Structure prediction request, 200 residues.
Amino acid sequence: MPEPKDERLVAGAMPQRKDAFHQLCQYWEVSDADAPTYRDIFENSEEGIYNYPGIVFLTDSTFLENPRAEMRYGKFSLNGRHIAATFDDGQKSLYLIQERSRETMILKRVEKDHTTVLYLKASEVFWTDATTNPYNKVNSEWRMPPKKTESHEQLKHRLKGCLQFYQYFFEGNAKSESDEIDFLGLPSCFRWYHGGIFVQ
Prediction:
């Protein structure tokens, strides 16, 4: 008897301690895309701004597209294989989970009249508490460009936000099932290397 096509949410392919919702709630890196939009493509602009496409689903049912580039927040609900998403700007998307395993996921996204198939790689880094997820909106406020020159106190507040972000970032990675930490695309005044850190 032939093996069935692996289109299901296979319990054996995911950690038993996590249900489908919590398995979804991690950082997913876009490794490829069919009929991509500009935000689904790795890019290095003339201004030196890199786009590392990805999606972070958080346990408070918020999510973030492009966590390491032009961030786009919204809310989502998971119903079986369907993820209904509404972005903060009011635009809506519908995602269909076509395949998912512990390491990868294929999502078909329909937004307006455009359909994109996203091939995603799991980070296996989980933050069960959305308030300590570095990618939630509050913990990422320090990354938002200021509209005008900031005061000393505002800069101090931004620096504290940066430090808090990296505290949560390291804590999540330390508890993860991954043995690598990926800094690509994250804004920082720090430089990381094997065995140490320095500030520019």
